[in-house]
Write a structure and sequence with these properties.
By secondary structure, the chain is α/β, with parallel strands linked by helices. The chain contains 16 helices and 11 strands. The strands form 2 sheets. The chain has a 7-stranded parallel β-sheet, with helices on both faces. Helix 6 packs antiparallel against helix 14. The longest helix has 19 residues, at 364-382. The chain is globular and about 55 Å long. The mean pLDDT is 95.
Length: 383
């Protein structure tokens, strides 16, 4: 059966790679919906090629541009964040790939779950902000949540056939990013260009900066807690510079399973899109002779303070992970616009966590308010 998919964030790194998979497997996939925030030109190009039923451009001022370009192709065009959240409810969609970056992925994910759609999730912020709500809702609706992040996909794959065997611990691997081994003092002079030069992975700007600061790994710890129902102490991080072992599970008998492969995001994207089937592809294959040695080390939490901030946030719970995420999004954007230093990003996050009111059992509306208040606070601290 052809799987009909909606790709939210089709012009980003994950979205464009997902469309490559669709392009090479037209007998398996049909694109029903494409959305983008502001890259109208690429969205138009993708729409003409893949002929979706509908597209949404997030930036409303670009609506006429997209509408006029697609008028002769019989493609419905909508605009705005509300339209992105609503479009996932279309009856003929089987799978929603959430490749939107940041907090904006939360509402469409919840709407898609409510509509009974399976979710391929590349938006870790959804779980960081409201993992309790999202996972509980998915259970109620009987919806599959299929992780796309390479680390969480690795854990998910390692757990296949192990549903009755409790997890003792999981290990999320990290490349260490471009600044592995640097001192805190050295990081103070890091430039945007240096931070965007990841040694192993090709990703969007926001996630690349998060990887450089290792905030990305902290966010993944919080995501893993909710995806796999774990306590924080059951989740550890190891530096694995080769990025071949994507993550590992340790069971109660001491045995471990690891998922391995080249650092290529198309593999976990395809697995989420085709689950539970593994579909043949022509991606480059791993050769042990190219990697004669694997290394593992502990991350330096005194240098990469974002890791500890994430663990502290998840241990306190409530709305604090939401604060962490919102402050980090603002800080990363400021760094990318050269308004903030590299080390100062974590400082802004820490200040926001200490200043925003704590809510022990937040509702969905509480998360929305917390996100908005934190962003305003972070912007005022940066100014």
């Amino acid at each position: 059966m052809i799987k009909k998919i909606a790709i939210l964030g089709s012009t980003g790194s994950i979205g464009t790679q997902a469309l490559e998979i669709v392009k090479h497997n037209p007998e398996s996939f049909q694109v029903e919906v494409l959305t983008a925030n502001a890259n109208a030109d690429l969205l138009i190009k993708q729409s003409i090629e893949f002929k979706p039923n509908a597209v949404v451009i997030g930036k409303e001022s670009l609506f006429a541009v997209v509408r006029d370009a697609l008028e002769k192709y019989d493609i419905k065009v909508f605009a705005g964040s509300d339209a992105i959240s609503q479009i996932v409810e279309m009856e003929n969609i089987n799978l929603v790939l959430v490749a939107i970056v940041g907090f904006s992925g939360l509402k469409p994910t919840i709407n898609a779950i409510n509509a009974g759609k399976d979710i391929a999730i590349a938006n870790k912020e959804t779980f960081v902000v409201a993992g309790d709500i999202v996972t509980q809702l998915a259970k109620q609706k009987g919806v599959n949540i299929l992780p796309v992040d390479s680390e969480h996909s690795a854990i998910f794959q390692s757990l296949a056939g192990e549903c009755h065997n409790p997890i003792e611990k999981i290990y999320l691997t990290a490349s260490g990013g471009p600044f592995y081994g640097k001192s805190l003092n050295e990081l103070k002079n890091v430039t945007k260009r240096q931070a965007l030069s990841h040694p192993n992975w090709e990703m969007g700007n926001k996630i690349t900066i998060d990887s450089a600061s290792m905030m990305n790994k902290g966010l993944e710890v919080i995501e893993a807690k909710w995806l796999f129902d774990l306590a924080p102490e059951q989740i550890d991080i190891v530096i694995h510079k080769q990025s071949v072992i994507h993550s590992m599970v340790q069971f109660e008998d001491g045995s471990m399973k690891a998922q391995m492969g080249l650092p290529d995001m198309k593999v976990p994207i395809q697995y989420a899109m085709t689950y539970p089937v593994r579909m043949k592809n022509s991606f480059k294959r791993f050769d042990f002779m190219d990697y004669p040695q694997f290394t593992f080390e502990k991350p330096d939490r005194e240098v990469f303070t974002s890791i500890q901030l994430a663990y502290d946030a998840i241990n306190k719970g409530g709305n604090i992970p939401c604060v962490l995420n919102a402050a980090n999004e603002v800080a990363v954007d400021a760094f990318l616009h050269e308004k903030l230093g590299f080390v100062q990003m974590a400082e802004i996050v820490e200040k926001c966590i200490s200043l925003v009111d704590y809510i022990k059992k937040p509702t969905f509306d509480d998360y929305l308010i917390t996100d908005l208040e934190t962003r305003k606070l972070a912007l005022s601290l940066i100014k």
